[in-house]
UniProtKB/TrEMBL annotation:
The keyword Hydrolase applies. Its EC number is 3.2.2.-. Keywords: DNA damage, DNA repair, Hydrolase. InterPro entries: Formyl_transferase-like_C_sf, MPG, MPG_sf. This is Putative 3-methyladenine DNA glycosylase. Gene3D superfamilies: Methylpurine-DNA glycosylase (MPG). SUPFAM superfamilies: FMT C-terminal domain-like. Belongs to the DNA glycosylase MPG family. It is an enzyme of class 3 (hydrolase). GO terms for biological process: base-excision repair.
Length: 205
């Protein structure tokens, strides 16, 4: 595998990056435990102009300030008092674009994933949905701000090739508050992958 570098993350088009993250491998290495999964679902958030983004209108809080960092930084937030949500900050510093990783297909360290999630056996829920992604990979809010070109959390490319016809677009999940922006086709999924969250999709790019 080859680790993705800043040149991947700092590009200006968050939709392009969200699409190209599909098929890449998200890796964590904590306390000598390596776990990884292939990314099969992402959602793009386009910063200050996107009503669904935490940074809409230029909002800056203690939690969201990390979104204004240079692309290639981890943004992890806690929601519903239950779930950690892992996001990839993209673009140049001061442009708060981010991509939520919504689903992975587990590849390595599955025993560790089962321990972290309290499951007895691996099924499709192990990597389905962003809360399960973070739990399986051991990611929490304490990892916010980590450099994604480092060794604790990184994304890599291997010899996996995803065909264009197998990339589906749809509106994002759970952003009804965003008005018209809730309808934007900013969610990218791998066709027929059982780890993808939400309803089954039939459209295509």
């Amino acid at each position: 595998m080859e680790k993705l570098g800043y040149d991947f993350y700092t590009r200006t088009n968050v939709l392009t990056i969200a699409r190209e993250l599909l098929g890449k491998v998200l890796v964590t290495q904590f306390n000598g435990v390596l776990t990884s999964g292939r990314i099969v679902e992402t959602e793009a958030y386009a910063g200050v102009v996107d009503r669904a983004s935490h940074a809409y209108g230029g909002r800056r809080t203690a939690r969201t300030e990390i979104m204004y960092a240079k692309g290639g930084t981890a943004y992890v937030y806690f929601i519903y008092g239950i779930h950690n949500m892992f996001n990839v900050v993209t673009n140049q510093a001061e442009t708060p674009h981010a991509i939520l990783v919504r689903a992975i297909e587990p590849l390595s360290g599955i025993d560790a994933m089962l321990t972290r999630t309290g499951r007895a056996k691996a099924d499709y829920t192990l990597g389905k949905g962003p809360g399960n992604v973070a739990k399986a990979l051991g990611i929490t809010t304490r990892h916010t701000g980590l450099d994604l070109t480092g060794n604790e959390i990184f994304i890599a490319t291997d010899d996996y090739v995803l065909k264009k016809k197998d990339i589906l677009l749809s509106p994002r999940i759970g952003v009804d508050y965003a008005g018209e922006d809730a309808l934007l086709p900013y969610r990218f999924t791998v066709r027929d992958n059982p780890y993808v969250s939400g309803k089954k999709l039939t459209g295509k790019k």
